[in-house]
What does this fold into?
Amino acid sequence: MKLAFVGVSILAFTGCSDEFLQDKKNYDNIDTSVYDDYDGALSRVNDIYSWCLPDDADANWKYNCTGNADDQSKSTEEYAGFGLFVNPDVELSVISGTVPDYFHNQANNIQASVWGRIRNINDCIEGILAGSLSDEQKNVLVGQVYFFRAWCYYQLVKWYGGVPIIKEVQEISEDSYTPRSSAKECIEFIVSDLDKSAELLKNATFSESSYGRITASAALALKGRVLVLWCSPLFNRANDQSRWQEAYNTMKTDFETISANHALYMGTNNVNASAFAGVFTTVGNTEMVFATLYNNISDAEDGGKNNNWENSIRPRNTLGGGGLTPSKNIIDLFPMADGGVPTTSDTYTKLTKSAIAYNEERPFLNRDPRFYRTFAFPGVRWAFSGSPSTTVSDDPCSDGKTYELWNYVWYTEAADTADATKGGYAADNLLTNNRGMYVRKRTDDLDINSTPLYSYLGTEGSGFKKSGAPIIEIRYAEVLLNMAEAACGAGQPSEAVQYLQQVRERAGYTAANNYGLSANLSDQAACMSAILYERQIEFAYEGKRFDDLRRWLLFDGGANMQEIAGCPSTWTLTGWNGNTCDYLGFKPINGQRRDLVEFRTTGEYAVSGKTVKDDPLVNAGVERCAAIDLSKDNLDEQLEELNAWYDKYLVYKKKKGDAYDQSQLEEYMHFFAKYYFLGFTQGAMNNDVQIEQTIGWEDTNNGGANGTFDPLN
It folds into this structure.
């Protein structure tokens, strides 16, 4: 790998506690003497945090997916609208410039390059180790940096398989070149760095003001994720049992350290999965293993770094950003109240169907407690701290503490009420800003957190932008489910079930019905299916689903590998009965379509005008029933009352989600098999004319011929 960067730029680290978030000096063009001073060396480490921590931005070369409606999440069941990877009309290619660049990004700018980050990390490691600090100081500092080198390489390897391994600062030279290593060598390198990190940090203690620093537990938890990736069908086409056994043994030992320091967050009570909801707004809770912290300081020059998630999910009539829209697919996939798969679902066929009939026209009835903490719909309380009506005329909400979401819709033309492509006007001044149903996951709900992490702004579209809510990249629930996957893969399904039970217990299930789990989980395939299902529900809108779909080849079950130009025979799936979807009883993503959900007024109330004053129910004097209050334990009674109100006044409507073709026929998701491992962009190839292109992708350094590098070799 050739590098062409000038200088090393240090930015203020703004990802952890208030002490971290203080303005720091900019150490441009540093010399090695900075590493002889603890504060100087710490500033270099803080620079690594600044560039490597996950962020609330859309997924790109620099940041992994954290749940936004970006190209990765829009290629899953979570959002509608064809993401980059499932658009049936556009096949990504190098020559057309459509393949995304997670490998290189921008040349000649260390702060805008994947490899600039790694060079910065290597410089920091070398400088600290060669400096005059005490061994104890060096260990704590460099232990954190080893973690981030592993984190950067993990992000590369999951996309490309083998990549160049660069362990030192390379001289800037035309002759500087490092070839791609094998995927196995890269995984071993990542694991080695994480082991070093864990060893160096095992006795580290950080002050309360330094909460958010990388710990030994974080290093071991990331290692578990990496090992499970290596065992997954993406890299393990033959289902090599020795990989699973080695991963299980290693993770079992590491689990002792992690579980000694972390646990599922249970809160002070757990009404309607309130503990599950509270994980995301209780800073410093036991479940946070690896997280990015934010604050509600407005000025970046004063150390401000804000999380925009709360603003993005809040409806427009709260002065939020307008909301994110869940697809009908994910809504219909959530378990029922007894823990079973909805009766209408054909996605997880090896798992037990619920004994409760699912009514897709009333999707809020009888669902897994996490459903109500993940989605919002007409007739729910969603309290916040703020007063939006002080700045926006016609806004019905005068105090966020009493806010209720009533986003039902009416139409101006009767013919539009049954047309999935037409939109209407929503109640309470939402009008055309309505989302039908809203993503509620990770919200800073006033009923959960009485001291919100945001500082409310009385500006339309900016109400919650000054939020200090953390982004939790790895939480203890993932550690449990990674352990479950390793145990299942190693032939220990009964142990895997124990980890599943812990996650389900926190969600509100009990031993009375085995926590809502299927009875057939002694079967390895059913057990693995249950684990992936649990991950889909537990981690919805946390940016995990796309990686799970890729590593388990769930877009097509791995059935289409031979469609890849130059595909070696070793890419054919021989484990998992030759098709992971068949093995798991999972309906492939390819060929599916995602639409949206809406609730519109019915009968004599179906048609009205275009303004907030034209609400047909309000004008008819219809009294709304009590909104669902999740802080109360009589949820079933509340839901029945809301259902009865819907029966009188509202009707379900399917809305267009994914695109239609030119003939206005529905289109369906298609993930081309070559996307399981990406190729390098033409810009990356131009920057390094010796680098091998991935099989299945055009090598622009070789006249556009097929790439020759095997990511599985």
About this structure: Residues 1-28 have pLDDT under 50 and may be disordered.
